[in-house]
Structures
1.
Amino acid sequence: MPSVYRFRLQRRDLPGRPDIVFPGRRKAIFVHGCFWHRHGCRNSVLPKARAEWWAEKLGRNVERDRAAVCGAEALGWSVLTVWECEMNDLAQVSDSIQRFLGAAGLAPAGSHAKAVRSELAEPRVSVGGRR
Ligand SMILES: [Zn+2]
């Protein structure tokens, strides 16, 4: 798979180019648009016109996503996928990211955990226009 080779040449270039990478923890986060990556939620309903064409086109995205996750995991990385529709609830998203990063284990209670939470809750990463 070409993207794996590219990773070997350039260490920072993981399969599927994750949106957010934590190299020290070997953890990567993909932020996916619901429609383009076929989340299955109501944002991902296919247009009635040329539905088959869309299904095939977007099916290739899903295949690529799956290959990217497998590729990254094969290289010893953990992968989390965050969906566009989940961004409606940033508190929930920051919770799942914290769990994913194991932040809770590092800072079980107190002000540090809160600081991490508010940092993660700040929408610094713009995902709105991503296709
Ligand atoms: Zn969705």
2.
Amino acid sequence: MKKEDITIQKMNENNIKYAIQIASSLVHKPNKAMWFTPAALEKMKLEFNEYNGYIAYLNNNPVGFISYKLKKGNLDITWIGVKEALHNCGIGTRLINRILQEARDNQIASIDVETLTAHHADENYKKTIAFYKSQGFEEFKISKDKDSDKWDILTMRKSIK
Ligand SMILES: CC(C)(COP(=O)(O)OP(=O)(O)OC[C@H]1O[C@@H](n2cnc3c(N)ncnc32)[C@H](O)[C@@H]1OP(=O)(O)O)[C@@H](O)C(=O)NCCC(=O)NCCS
């Protein structure tokens, strides 16, 4: 896959459906742990309409998405996902790079993202944490998930120089 095969477009009312399709493909199935719960997917559908985001295309086919929320001095990545068959091909990195640009344009000091702690997480989430670490995020804080006692929430932070 060449760098120029991947393009990034701002999320809008026409392409939000692709983010939902990709997210749906990453939802837990009976007997198969994936990444998102059905409840998380419902939350995403609402939030994609509220928040800013980007869609990644590979040769014009939608393959990934990222959404974020701008706060004063801080940017939160709310959701990110890449089609499973294309994991580890550099698409997530391209999406994070676009968000880094967004953060710099808005004079943001740091980017936060919430995930699940490795302690509770299955293998899939260990890979997600490895991905964020590869992007320069560091473990920042651990908090209880008010919706579940099965896992803790890990916030990872990247400072913008
Ligand atoms: C997390 C996710 C978005 C990463 O996207 P991606 O396109 O696979 O990431 P990249 O190909 O850009 O990977 C960049 C780096 O992350 C690390 N990484 C990615 N996949 C990895 C894996 N399976 N195991 C270990 N490290 C991994 C590597 O260091 C990699 O760098 P390298 O290619 O130089 O070795 C993608 O795996 C995904 O959609 N996961 C499911 C949804 C999810 O976890 N969302 C976040 C919920 S909080």
3.
Amino acid sequence: MSEDRSPSFLDLDASRLDQADAAVVPIPWESTVSYGTGTAHGPRAVLTAGPHLETFDEELEVDLRDLLRLATLNPLGPERGERPPAYLPRLRDSVAALGLAPPFPIFLGGEHSITAAVLAGLRPSHEDLTVVHIDAHADLRDEYEGSPHNHACALRRVLDLGIRRLISVGIRSCEAEEFAMARTDERIETHYAHDLQEPALFDQLLKDLRTLEGPIYLSVDIDGLDCTLCPATGTPQPGGLGWYEVLAILRATIRESAAELVGADIVEVVPMAGSQVNEMVAAKLAFKILAYRFAPRENRPASLPLRLDRGPAAAVSPHQIGDREGP
Ligand SMILES: [Mn+2]
């Protein structure tokens, strides 16, 4: 099957990139995956899942159709047999040549090593940039299996760009050296998955995210989510963030803070035969990122994150319940 033309994500396409508010950029890159394979097929699977989503968001009470024009670009994949030292700089230059941010880009991977290349192409300077990173893995290795471009080095390469701050969330797999680096490097703040099981610590994370300012880039390795939400991903880890925990994190970061989300990626998505879970979770994640980024803020006061006051149960008094006899 040709990967040259992409199915369009949702049915909101702008015919030209310069008329779009947002752009979906497929990056079918797979080279250094160390365990399960198939992430090169992730972007196309996510794009194919997209039209099966409703464009209305019942949480924000908005229709994306009314909010933004979205361009789905052709894939920025490797040439046949192209290796990381050739491909990743070319990816950086291809992203730079597109002239993004604006339009707001969502990059669909592909393996996590695309993130540093994409960020290098997206912005000339990174010293004011905060990266919010959802992942099972710290990805702070300087080299893995002989390559500094391995997906296990993804965030180390992002730090090499000179970003201001890295906030990693959902981490539950790292080696001792990565753990030590996360603790000693003042740019890195790590929220381990086991800590986030404690409600008070999860609430504190949301409070901290709401204080973010300045430009933010979001990098979501799909394996940061609970592995039931991404069963085919190449290096799954038990545990992880539930769907509504991820949404709370995205809402706090994108919608309830004063920060400006300048771009996002969703990586390590792998489709599998007989199930649409992997790509549908990733597609809905892209949808929610767009909804949080583009919906007017007054639709959703930050003080009512769950809007429990509006549920039907709240309107039913104990007296009314008592009045309701069986037939
Ligand atoms: Mn990972």
4.
Amino acid sequence: MIRIIKPSVDAVAWNSIVTEDDDLAAGVSAWNEDGWATALGPWKPFFEAHAVRCEIATPPLAADVWCDLLSEWRGVLRSANEARVKLVESFKRTGDGKVDDNIYKKFMPFLLTLFNGKCAYCETLFSSNQPGDVEHFRPKGRVVDAAFRPILIEEPDSMPREHPGYYWLAYEWTNLFPACADCNRYRRHGKKAESGAGKADRFPVEGFRAHLEGDEGKEHALLIHPSDVEPSKHLVFEESGKVKATSNIGTETLAHLGLNKREFLVKERRRARVTAERFYESYLQAVITNNSSRIEQDRDRLNEMLAGREPYTVMQLMGIESVRGRLTAYGLSIPLPHGAAR
Ligand SMILES: [Zn+2]
């Protein structure tokens, strides 16, 4: 899980997307103006000639891609806003309303582009036969607890009633994420009853639960918002591919998404770290031996990893960082944008 800050809905502001956090910004400052790395130590000439490009420091989309998407963006926003007004009015009038799936699904191309075609929660890459869901961080149609019992709204002078869901956020950009079926839907991952995972209509909070428009800001969500919350403050990814929680939010996030229960996922995360580590070693070897064709080939792949375009970026950066750590032990310092020594 890696934080990707969503640009504001104001299209003008989209051009200013840059970094994920302050640590990354600090790392980026070590890169040249045009995005090429400067390496220190005796290998400096090699790295200056063949440096890895830090694409993550620049807006994540090429200008032409932005232009294509921007032309659609305003139309999608307009229809989402109209649908939201209608839905909120319907709830005010009748206490009920129907979410139009076709409206929020129009955000998917934007979400996919921003999240590099990966699930916002587990970083699994989508494919043609697993195209991914548009997931509502706060569920749109109903809310259930950890055991899938409906959350009840209890107010004075009225009978308890089932929470209608955060319907006013059904078409809201900040509430939508691309998610894989395993993160978004509940299903079993093994024979044991407790091995089920998937968020579904659950949304854990501590204390106050909002059921009225605008009150969601008062909630203390126990689930990592992939854009607003830095996952590394709540989760520690281990070399084994397992994830450890370091807070209540981390614990609930792991439990709801099943990030450790899905064996294939744990295995793939481990594999991603090893692959990146070997790949970076291979690249360094190519640089040392001045193998120009391999340098170019390896550099492109490494750029994809650094830019977060491959699955399990957290693990890949861990692998690259471990090689970098070994280099540091030999007195070499090669700046990398993310996971650099603090
Ligand atoms: Zn997922």
